[in-house]
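Sorry to interrupt, but I need a hand with the structure work. Can you supply me with one protein entry, sequence and fold together? No commentary is needed, just the two lines. Leave the record below and I will have a look.
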Amino acid sequence: MSAATASAPGDQQPAGLSMALTCFDEVINDPFGKKVLMYLIAPRNTKHLQYQLIQLMKSSDKLNTSKKDADIRQRELFDFCKSYFLEFFTTNILFSLKDGFHGFMMTEMIAKLSRK
């Protein structure tokens, strides 16, 4: 399955995320885009997100507007995005290994995929 045709379970594509991922190369190289993508791979991990930001996110958990369980929603978002990550990393393997953050992101991705 190519990144362009990837879909979440039930063929429901998150509209905003789908639109952002059409320009994945730009998003993964943007300072804020990197943080969003890393959150999709390893949510609330203090290795790459500040502790204060994680605490802020936890405080807003009570304001949940989704009908889905947070873990299911997170897994579906990751499953939707993983083909984009894999395509980028396989196409840009040398660049990713030389770039510190991309290399870190790649190792987090491999770790997450190996836990499945």
Observations:
- The chain has one domain: 14-115.
- Residues 63 and 75 are 20 Å apart (CA to CA).
- The longest helix spans residues 70-91.
